[in-house]
Amino acid sequence: MQRRIYLSQIRLNEKRLHHFSLLTHRQKNELNDFDQCNFMIRLFRLYRLEGIVFCTGAIILVLEIAGSRVFAPYLGTSIFIWTSLIGIILASLSLGYHLGGKLADKNPNYKTFASILFFSGVAVLFLTLIKTPFLTFVRYTFTDIRLAALISTIVLFGPASTLLAMASPYAVRLKLNTIEMSGKTIGNLYAISTVGSIVGTFLTGFVLFSYFHLTHILFSLAILLFILSFIAASSYRRVHTLILLLFCAGSMIVSSEAQALLQQNGIIVRESPYQHIEVYTQDTYREQNRKTRVMRTGTGGTQSAMFLDAPDELVFSYAKMFRLAEYTTPNIQSGLIIGGGVHSYTKHFLNTYASSSLDVAEIDPVLTELAREYFFLTDSPRLRLADEDGRTFLQHQDKTYDVVYLDAFRSNNNIPFHLTTKEFFDEIDVHLNENGTLIVNMISAFEGEKSEFFWAVFGTLSQTYPQVYAFQVQDEKAPDERQNILLLATKNIAPFSFDNETEFQQLFETRYTGDLLLDLPPLTDEFAPVDHYTRHLQI
């Protein structure tokens, strides 16, 4: 019996070889192509889990980094935001790993795995669609930035992070064939997931934010997860997934059209590596019936403004008070601005001090591009622009200045702490001429729980400069209210008299003369709890 079966198999193979020899050259190539296609399909099915795990690992990190940009226009990017993002996402990952492993042990199958990926995409889509109204609600509902950050992270990023984390342990269970190879299988898949996270990190920081809109990035993540759901299920009949794919693609098109419509209506929206930027024109601004172009970079109101009928004229009161430097340092010949923004004061300085030179360190090059395009900034042989952090700029400069303007605290939700420390003020001191002056623009209060940041900076400046004075920019504000404050620090040893009748008398009247509360430790590179001191000022 076995012999007859064996002989019949031989005859069948001989018959197949005979038929193959009768095929044309073209038919043989088509058959080979078919075999290659089958090989590619088998290869795809063999390694699809590895590819999916790689992609989910990348998506988790892209989502986490994107979180800071999602929150920035509403809650800022303080240490509280990053703490909430990292903490809640780690907690969500832990929960997801637990749930994914538990679910995989019950009845591991590709249909359930595909569903996990599908609902991960739904969660990312949910985040993309509700982020603006939800964060607007949170911003005006919660006064504690820490609570606002925690609630926002849980609602927006918790579901997606949990579902994405469920994919890895479920994929491990699907991949396991024998207990003897379990260690190698688990190690390989988690290594692949980690490599995906690394790729996602660098891709987001170096590429995505520089060339793509945030909303488009989030929509693309949702689309990718829906595609992975297709791949996992090995089926293209899931109508609901196809509908969501089309919805995401349509939403991206609508978003692009909305951006174009905004620009047609005079609202320019740009994403830089550092922030979300909006530029638009208003017919009236702060009770002034003059057409004004303004720039916003998130929370904290307008960061820059320009009168269209007088581009060199200053709009903000605090910038007008920068001329106090002329009293402590007459005959200004050289200046440095740290935090140029769209260069409103840059233009005013060059126009006011006609023979003086000016350096400007602005870390965000997109702001300088916008300044040239929309705020009438022009090049000058007396002007040197640097797309660099103010502190690193000073570290490789030999030049000294008569006056340094520190205007880099654009929002209390995002204060660069390294520009508030004694080490930084010492660095400025080295680059100031003998009677040089440092002017610092900040937002705080003179008294009460909102005044900690002011007194911390005031005390830190007092460690380096013999004379430090504070001026109230908006004199109608109560001392315990959040407001613009101008700090003036000078290398002059002798105290200045502010009682003389001079052209500065009106500015002198805004000087703060209350009791000095120098009970906070100076801010240093080792200890600078700026976010803690500004917690009552945020949102």
How would you summarize what this structure contains?
The chain is an alpha/beta fold and 539 residues long. It contains 17 helices and 11 strands. A hairpin with a 7-residue loop joins strand 3 and strand 4 (304-307).
What does this structure look like?
The protein is α/β, with parallel strands linked by helices and 539 residues long. Helices cover 56% and strands 12% of the residues. Helix 2 packs antiparallel against helix 5, helix 2 packs across helix 7 and helix 14 crosses helix 15. The longest helix is centred in the first third of the chain and has 51 residues. The protein starts with a helix and ends in a 6-residue tail after the last helix.
**Mean pLDDT score, rounded?**
84
Largest sheet: 7 strands, mixed
Helix coverage percent: 55-70%
- The geometry reads as elongated
Assign the structural class, choosing from mainly alpha, mainly beta, alpha/beta, alpha+beta, or little secondary structure: alpha/beta
Query: Treating each run of at least 4 consecutive H or I residues as one helix, how many helices?
Result: 17
Rg over alpha carbons: 31 Å
Number of strands: 11
Low-confidence stretches: 16-20
Q: Which sequence of SSEs, written as H and E, runs from N to C?
A: HHHHHHHHEEEEHHEHEHEHEHEHEEHH
**Alpha-carbon distance between the termini?**
86 Å
Strand arrangement within the widest β-sheet reads 7-6-5-8-9-11-10
Topology:
Elements: H1 2-22, H2 25-75, H3 79-106, H4 110-141, H5 145-175, H6 182-211, H7 214-233, H8 239-264, E1 268-271, E2 276-282, E3 292-296, E4 304-307, H9 317-320, H10 325-328, E5 334-338, H11 344-352, E6 357-361, H12 365-374, E7 383-386, H13 390-395, E8 401-406, H14 422-430, E9 432-444, H15 452-464, E10 467-472, E11 483-490, H16 505-508, H17 530-533
Parallel strand pairs: 5-6, 5-8, 6-7, 8-9
Antiparallel strand pairs: 1-2, 2-3, 3-4, 9-11, 10-11
